[in-house]
Design goal:
This protein is an alpha+beta fold. It is built from five helices and five strands; from the N terminus they run ααββαβααββ. A five-stranded antiparallel beta sheet has the order 1-2-3-4-5, sandwiched between helices.
Length: about 160
């Protein structure tokens, strides 16, 4: 249950985040400039990492059936990485933000504990994603897929710089 205090970071997610920080020297150097040329004259473009349709079960909600069992949710996330070289300096994963790690952080944050409100969960997730190296802004949508028979319910939140 959320009580206003930040939830502890799951150990697996913390290790992934620490690894991402250590391994992303190029992403950390991202600036809030637009497409054009970097300080060293290399061509740049605005880069956004997008994960769409990530589905898994999470313990979320205030209804009795929601408290009894996890329910399917879907997360869509966009991470603004700002101006980046059109090509990484080499073809190595250590020089970019690894989307496998972003995916795991989303799952870990959403499944760490029961949360009553969708608004609380999305806020917690956005805060966490904004702490990733080189991330300037996030747009996240979380949908409860089966809360009603005739529709899904979703919240979308944008934070940081766009």
């Amino acid at each position: 249950m959320m009580n206003g205090a930040p939830a502890p970071v799951p150990p697996a997610a913390e290790a992934i985040e620490n690894e991402a920080v250590a391994a992303s020297s190029q992403v950390c150097g991202a600036t809030d400039t637009h497409a054009g040329e970097g300080a060293d004259g290399t061509a740049q473009g605005g880069q956004t990492l997008t994960l769409t349709g990530l589905r898994f079960d999470a313990s979320l909600g205030i209804l009795e059936q929601e408290k009894q069992a996890p329910q399917p949710i879907q997360v869509d996330a966009e991470l603004n990485l700002g101006a980046q070289p059109l090509r990484p300096r080499d073809d190595e994963i250590t020089h970019v933000l690894d989307y496998r790690k972003v995916r795991q952080i989303i799952i870990d944050e959403c499944t760490a504990e029961h949360v009553n409100l969708l608004e609380s969960l999305i806020g917690k997730l956005c805060e966490r994603l904004l702490r990733l190296p080189g991330v300037l802004g996030v747009r996240v949508k979380i949908a409860k897929l089966e809360i009603f028979e005739d529709c899904e319910v979703a919240i979308r939140l944008q934070a940081g710089r766009w």
